[in-house]
Design brief:
The protein has a single domain, classed as YefM-like domain (YefM-like fold). It contains four helices and three strands. It has helices spanning 6-11, 13-21, 48-57, 82-93, and strands at 2-5, 26-30, 33-38. 39% of the residues lie in helices and 16% in strands. Strands 1-2-3 form a three-stranded mixed beta sheet. The radius of gyration is 24 Å and the shape is elongated. With 94 residues, it is α+β, with helices and mostly antiparallel strands.
Length: 94
């Protein structure tokens, strides 16, 4: 990630926005201390893979490695099905 002081960012605003449009993130600093990050806007029309990569890059998402994701098996519990209870509650409200 490129670090840029606020003054330099102000002077070269168009240049840095062009980099952001190209997918780069810019860390803005004030007297050497980080104050903000300018990053590409995530659009819902972007391909899913691109959105996942952006979330992963920001540390919001961590993908499971192939073969390491363990799925739980369903277990049967005694009593009524939850779907039946939910349906009854919906009927009572209407």
């Amino acid at each position: 990630m490129e670090r840029v002081g606020l003054r330099e960012a102000n002077i070269g605003f168009a240049k840095y926005i062009k980099k952001v449009k190209g997918g780069k993130e810019i860390l803005l600093t004030d007297r050497g201390k980080a104050v903000a990050i300018i990053s590409p806007f995530m659009r819902m029309e972007d391909p899913l893979e691109k959105r996942l990569q952006m979330l992963e890059k920001r540390g919001i998402l961590k993908r499971a490695s192939a073969g390491k994701l363990k799925l739980h098996t369903l277990i049967e519990l005694p009593g009524r099905k939850i779907s039946e209870i939910v349906q009854e509650n919906r009927e009572e409200r209407s």
